[in-house]
């Protein structure tokens, strides 16, 4: 069930105030999860994992011909494992960067990435002084 625009706005405001008050706790609570609740699950990460799986299966199937194909299986497993770790750490997620207009408001239909939000908060703290 998706949230309405007002609920999303309120949720963003709560998250921003939490990050402003206690950045360490806020980043630990919201860290690693994308907007859909899946950490970094992307087409690129899945493709790398499938390539690793194919290498693993191919190495096992061809191991009867030569024992050198076992190394292909090991490399395939490492590629699969690496792709899984990469996606879990958020490397596979595609974050959309948003451009802001002069008023500091986001344009309609754009999403704010986590790094640009933190950068904007940092700038606002020091511009006020």
From TrEMBL:
Segments crossing the lipid bilayer: 41-62, 68-88
UniProt keyword terms in alphabetical order: Membrane, Transmembrane, Transmembrane helix
InterPro entries: DUF3040
Keyword set includes Metal-binding: no
Keyword Membrane included in the entry's annotation: yes
Bias (Basic and acidic residues) ranges: 99-113, 120-129
Annotated spans, Disordered: 91-129
Name of the protein in question: DUF3040 domain-containing protein
């Amino acid at each position: 069930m998706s949230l309405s625009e007002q609920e999303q706005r309120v949720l963003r405001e709560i998250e921003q105030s939490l990050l402003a008050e206690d950045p360490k706790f806020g980043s630990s609570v919201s860290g690693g999860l994308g907007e859909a609740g899946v950490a970094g699950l992307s087409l690129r990460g899945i493709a790398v994992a499938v390539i690793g799986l194919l290498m693993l299966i191919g190495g096992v199937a061809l191991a009867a011909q030569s024992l050198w194909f076992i190394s292909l299986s090991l490399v395939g497993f490492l590629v699969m494992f690496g792709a899984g770790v990469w996606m879990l750490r958020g490397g596979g997620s595609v974050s959309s960067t948003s451009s802001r207009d002069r008023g500091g408001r986001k344009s309609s239909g754009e999403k704010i990435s986590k790094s640009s939000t933190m950068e904007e908060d940092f700038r606002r703290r020091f511009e006020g002084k």
